[in-house]
Amino acid sequence: MDQVILISMAVLGGIALISAIILYMASKKFSVSEDARILEIDAVLPQANCGGCGKAGCHDFAASCVSASEKEFCKLNCPVGGQSVMNKIASILGYAAVKQERTVSVLRCNGTCENAPAKIMYDGVSSCRIANHISSGLSGCPNGCLRLGDCVKACPFDALHIDKKTGIPVVDESKCTSCGACVRICPRQLFEIRPYGSNGQRVYVACRNTQKGALARKNCKAACIACGKCSKICSDISIDNNLSYIPSTIDASQYGEDLVKSCPTGAIVLTTENTNEQY
Amino acid sequence: MNNIKTFSIGGIHPNKYKLTTSSPIIEAGLPEVVYIPVKQHIGAPAKILVQKGDRVKVGTLLADADGIVSSDVHSSVSGEVLKVEAIEGGSGYLENMITIKVEGDEYEPFIDLSKDISRDISYTAEQIIQKLREAGIVGMGGAGYPTPIKTSIPEGKKVDCLIVNGIECEPFLTADDRLMVEKAEQIVIGAKIINKALGIQNAIIAIDENKPQAIETLTKITKTYVGVNVGVCATKYPQGGEKQLIAAIAKREVPSGKLPVDVGCIVQNVGTVFAIYEAVMKNKPLYERILTVSGDACKHPANYRVRVGTPISYLIEKSGGLTEATTQVILGGPMMGNSVSNLNAPVTKLTSGILMLSDNLAGKETEMDCIRCGKCAQVCPIGLEPFLIARLMRNNQTENLREAHVLDCIECGCCAYTCPARVPLLDYCKLAKTELKKKK
């Protein structure tokens, strides 16, 4: 009986030894050498894998950082990690750190329950993308927020919430990393990534309705009617297809208040540092 | 009588609710204004020919087909053009429409208004197709594919079978059923006209089992016409789908991404066939159609002959008004139709019914988690896996959708109807289709 145990131990031990040798040789022969810096950068990155940088994930971003020349490196940015992470990556690669501007997502619609009252009752699937197919929405505005919160579900950082009073989503600036998930999911392209601005001041047209003024106003009190008053204050503001657009290059601290005052419908919004606190 | 035919995979048996089977078609009359959309078909919108202030008669050409895949649009009333601009359609989105104020009821002189049936088809195939084009005939089953294109067979392809679709498998709708009972001979002549245009001698009028009156009437009449027969199909949804009908009648399968013409079949709805008869024999453009106003919240369900462009609200008023119980108004059938958000939207060439449904039938159902029972895959008449498509769509894995063959989906809604977890599978499939088409 003892002999059986001894023989089986010897045989199994032998098989294990041979397999170990084969595995060792295979791992040597087929090993993939990767730039050590990629792993190093990968470790610094936030690992959110959100795709905000435009790459397939954090590892992919690390790989493209390593393969980029110094010139190309300036264009790469991890919006989630921000300046501190980019500084670390730059020091790993031995490049000079580039100053990255903080950006944040803004909702270009002010179709709140009050501004754009509901005309129909929707009790279908609670998804903006599906509702967008079926109908122009509760208020009838074909370009406005559908208030069903696909963006809230898509946000990987919990930075978007539907405000119960207004019905439309609110961006929590402290959490928003401008990864762009909301920009991609919104069926009406209402989100835009804009620079955070000095002291959190941003000025933008919170409307995307391209209908003629009278029609747009029928559905929403705060619709842009393309009257052109804002473009008289600042010539960089373009009015195209019945809709005004304020480019992010316009200095909000200089023109912001004038622009808000000039807008007869209240479609222009100026944020301040305290905007978030009111919610 | 022939054996009862049906398609082999999938299908469901929803409640019929055919409330209006024995109500004869009545004239809906003339509303005060009509809104005529310039896009009532698949393809490019028609080019508008009239202006504000123009006077038109019934049958006047309002908009001309723009390109090959497009269709003419004619006036359905006589009166004055009030507006030519984009106004809200049934979904609330803007559509280009021609608004006409109705004054009197004058017809263009070329329309033959006599009631007697013309039986002598003396036109050549080219003349027939030309007449269909001038009359703006489109597939009235719901898709709105311009009929002249369907009838002109591309070179190198051979068609040997015309199937006239008289199935009407959607619950509530009875417009096609009534048309077959009341205009049986015209439909048979219409089938002969298409046969002549296609150069074949074989037409089968497919009717489903639960329309005994239509089967009886048409069987009697087809005896005197060579080459037109009646085929009886089982009552199963979606038997009226083009591919399902070909599978049942001709026992052929239309391959993925191909058209019926590739397997030698052409399918035309009975409504379209009747319109073809009127266009060729009576020179009548497509300006009116038969539709059913019904629903469990409808006071007086009925089948109407309606001018294209009539507002839905007019027909609802005619059928007893909007009742307190109505929670949803649906354009089309309950399985495939869409609910409307604007009751002033007009009836188009493609509207087969207007349904007013109460909470019992249109109540909100809470979506639960998929339990992987596989019922949706069992009932899908195409053999897709809707639960998989829904999951891919929810996770935004659009790159895998093509492999799931979602473009073959016919949007029949069997999956959503049967799902015990009430997952809106059809909505996900529709969404997936648009996402894929966007990518192309």
Q: In sequence order, what are the helices and strands of chain B, one letter per element?
A: EEEEEEEEHHEHHEHEHEHEEHEEEHHHHH
Using the CA coordinates, give the radius of gyration of chain A: 27 Å
Oligomer: heterodimer
Query: From N to C, what is the helix and strand string of chain A?
Result: HHHHHEHHEEHEEHHEEHE
The portion of residues forming beta strands of chain B comes to: 15-25%
Residue-averaged pLDDT of chain A, rounded? 88
Low-confidence stretches of chain A: none
| Tally of individual helices of chain A | 11
Would you give an account of this structure?
The complex is a heterodimer of chains A (279) and B (440). With 279 residues, chain A is an alpha+beta fold. Chain A is built from eleven helices and eight strands. In chain A, the strands form four sheets. In chain A, strands 1-4 form a two-stranded antiparallel ribbon. In chain A, helix 2 (36-44) packs across helix 3 and helix 2 (36-44) packs antiparallel against helix 5 (82-93). The longest helix of chain A is centred in the first third of the chain and has 28 residues, at 2-29. Chain A is elongated, with a radius of gyration of 27 Å. The relative contact order of chain A is 0.11. With 440 residues, chain B is α/β, with parallel strands linked by helices. Chain B contains 13 helices and 17 strands. Chain B has helices spanning 125-135, 147-151, 175-182, 184-198, 212-222, 242-249, 270-282, 312-318, 359-362, 375-379, 386-394, 414-418, 425-439, and strands spanning 25-27, 33-37, 47-48, 55-56, 61-64, 73-74, 79-88, 94-102, 161-166, 203-208, 228-233, 265-269, 288-294, 302-307, 326-331, 338-339, 353-358. In chain B, the strands form four sheets. A six-stranded mixed beta sheet of chain B has the order 1-14-13-17-15-16. In chain B, strand 10 (203-208), helix 5 and strand 11 form a beta-alpha-beta unit. In chain B, helix 4 (184-198) crosses helix 7. Chain B is globular. The mean pLDDT of chain B is 91. Chains A and B meet through helix 6 of A and strand 16 and helix 13 of B.
